[in-house]
Here is the input.
Amino acid sequence: MPAPVWQTQPELTTETMKSLTISDVTLTFGGINALSNVTITIEPGLITSIIGPNGAGKTSLLNCISGFYHPTSGKIMYGNKQLTHSSPHQVTKLGISRAFQNLELFSGLSVVDNLMLARHTNLKYNFFQAMIYVGKASRIEAENRAYVEEIIDFMELEPYRNSIVGNLAYGIQKRVEVARALTLNPQLLLLDEPMAGMNIEEKEDVVRFIMDIKKERNTTVILVEHDLGVVMDISDRINVLDFGEVIGSGTPEEVASNPKVIEAYIGED
Amino acid sequence: MSTNRWLATGNYFTSYKDEQRIFITHLDRTFFSIFISLLFIWPLLFKLSNKYMLVIDNILIAIVAIIGLNIVTGFAGLISIGHAAFMGVGAYTVASFARTLGDSHVIITHAWPLLILLSGLTGAVFGAIVGLPAMRLKHLYLAMATLSFQMIFTWTINFLEFFNQGQTIAISNVFWFTGKLGRKDHYFFWYYVLLVVVILSGFMVRNLLRTRYGRCLGAVRDNDRAADAMGIHPGLTKVYAFGLAGFFAGIAGALHAYVYRGVGFESFTLHHSITYLAMAIVGGLGTLHGSFWGPIAIMTLELQMESFAEYAGRILPSDWNLATALKPLSFGLVIVLFLMFEPRGIANWWRIARSYTKLWPFRY
Here is the structure.
């Protein structure tokens, strides 16, 4: 019996994890600055939150990191690899994965198939082996299916394994979205409002999952979230964006006492 | 695994390899094997006339083509209105050998399995080239791009002297181990060849669908942005889907050329492309067995309508001209009814029927 896939992969330790450096990034859409001169360093092994009012450029920043947008100027470095002009599938191969804000699941496929798609680049057999199936393709599929099962177990999705994703409840779909990002076995996980539209119990679940992801899987998490209570509680670092500019960053305590942040959120007195 | 692998209704898998099986119970597998053997045996028991054997050959050719069309339109969600043209590419690959080497050259008469495979590969190359716009275009715009290939194909064939300007290019009878095939055995022989091709294609696609090469198709259909984030190149996946569809179309085209012992452009027109699309819809888009139901249903309907029109033509006044109108009318009606009442096609009826019989007779 060969060792399961998740055990053959190198153990992710804080030393091997790379930091993400966003330096001087500007993103312009026809005269509107979605992001201007954003400089943020994401340290490995921590939960870093990006907060800000609506339209502050949080999702634009995530899109720049994950390759859906390319910054007009500036540089994004992951370790010593440059991401500035990479497309999403190249970014994914570097170990950065993302859960989308609005559900972007493969709604016609089952939960297992959705997660198996996240193993796509790990399924190393060729077309002809796939055609014959018996042998290598079957073995690798089974190994990766076991890996997927581990994630299903981690995200507590067992009852929905074979359900078509499009028919599941919203809260569950959100969880599948996070599970799928996790199945890519990322070192850096981008979560775009994983708690939007959830009730308090579902939110508690997701918070627990995020804490577990950090602790058990040694994954760096970038969290974009509107619920300030959650953000203040679980984040190690917080960056505040307003109108595309970073107006404050640091630990939750530092940010909470930053006058510019208070001004942006509460307004001038 | 459960103690009873014949009638198990629930999920009793104990390993992930168990879960990969095509046939969950022994009963399914046995029924399927019996069905396949019956397909091989029946022509030996009932001698069918050439006319009906040709209809069955036609259905099998269409099944091969629809398997391809279902990959690109059903699984990858890219509408292709040029599928008959891809079949034409396959058929004209055989025809160009006949034109350059003569219609009874040894390559055509003896190496026909290789030539059919080559036609499939040519179809795949053309499919991939025509699929290139899919890297940028989506939905109806992409459909237009495939439609333009259909137009270019018809034009090219009609205007090139090399292709006999669309007139029939003869292909001679092939040789089997028993010698040259006679006229009488022709359709009978090709029935077996087609049956083998259909079974191989079916299993090939079934296998692909449970691996990364099949799943990526569903991914670009449902959400190509997310597919990109999963490390799947959406553009190349679409080109691959077109290539694979072109492969099956090419094989179907070459088989068509051999069965009809000739290639003419009128078998690969826009009308045929739309008929194939209709077969895929009636069968059930995005399901493998839909590719079998569709051609069977539409071609049987055509056959029935033909004989009904013949009958009606005799008793109705001759100036009503019902006979010519009946075929397109019934064809159109069937498509409209399916789109309205069963957009998931006959495959859905099959699914419902199976779920009804799942708990019967008193399984556990």
In short: The mean pLDDT of chain A is 85. The radius of gyration of chain A is 19 Å.
